[in-house]
Write a structure and sequence with these properties.
It is built from 7 helices and no strands. The chain is mainly alpha-helical.
């Protein structure tokens, strides 16, 4: 029993520290993306006459608003202290995801607007296919989560049965978005104007990947913490059941 309690505390502390590392990676990735778009690519402006400035809205919104915000929403259950009401954690998780979804749709719009301005064909690259798939699946995942875990109509047993699939699908979609970002950065690295810009793009891609892996690791550790806590409680109940009654 003591081993289970110690293991539970260990996984909880480790998940918290990994979450802190993810927050640092979040800020680092956001800064790197801004430096690339503002210093090397001329700025961000959806209303610009320059197609490149219109395009720059796409990586900015998809990195800041989609990938990074999705990761923070996933980490909400670890970031928000456990002593706070679970519904508050759930609300933060849902609302941050909703903001990320809205920004992702805007990012897709920016990409299509750039193609129109540049007279370029739509949806011809692997990056575009992965990106559209990630946004579409994420929208379905959000709707499923809202109906199943937020609306009061769903039964508790239904929620408990759906939770593992919801977590697994969420992480899969998140990593699909990370893969889409990597392919997009590869496309832009081929057209980098200088070696310095090329290196910055590569470093940004590495930090996006590290962020994704760190978020996934934090979720795995949190699940390990919950399993260890459940094991400790079960062991305690068994031990108490074996204690002979006082006469």
């Amino acid at each position: 029993m003591a081993h289970g309690i110690i293991g539970s505390h260990y996984h909880s502390m480790l998940a918290s520290r990994v979450g802190m590392v993810a927050h640092v990676l979040f800020l680092t990735t956001a800064v790197l993306m801004l430096v690339w778009l503002l210093h090397y690519r001329g700025g961000i402006n959806i209303q610009s006459e320059d197609p490149e400035q219109i395009f720059n809205v796409h990586p900015f919104v998809m990195s800041w608003g989609f990938i990074l915000l999705i990761g923070e929403a996933i980490l909400a259950y670890s970031t928000i202290p456990s002593h706070i009401d679970h519904r508050t954690q759930k609300m933060a998780h849902m609302l941050i995801h909703l903001v990320g979804l809205i920004l992702a749709i805007f990012g897709v719009y920016a990409a299509f607007k750039f193609h129109d301005a540049a007279v370029a064909p739509d949806l011809t690259s692997l990056h575009s296919w992965l990106g559209i798939a990630a946004v579409a699946l994420f929208g379905l995942q959000w709707l499923f989560g809202f109906v199943t875990f937020w609306l009061p109509a769903a039964h508790a047993d239904t929620r408990a049965a759906a939770a593992p699939a919801h977590v697994m699908a969420g992480l899969a979609i998140f990593m699909l978005a990370v893969c889409a970002a990597q392919t997009g950065l590869v496309e832009k690295s081929a057209a980098a104007a200088s070696a310095a810009e090329l290196k910055l793009i590569n470093v940004t891609g590495i930090f996006i990947l590290l962020y994704g892996l760190t978020v996934a690791s934090a979720v795995a550790l949190r699940k390990a913490f919950l399993c260890a806590r459940l094991f400790a409680r079960s062991a305690l109940r068994i031990s108490l059941a074996r204690v002979p009654p006082l006469t």
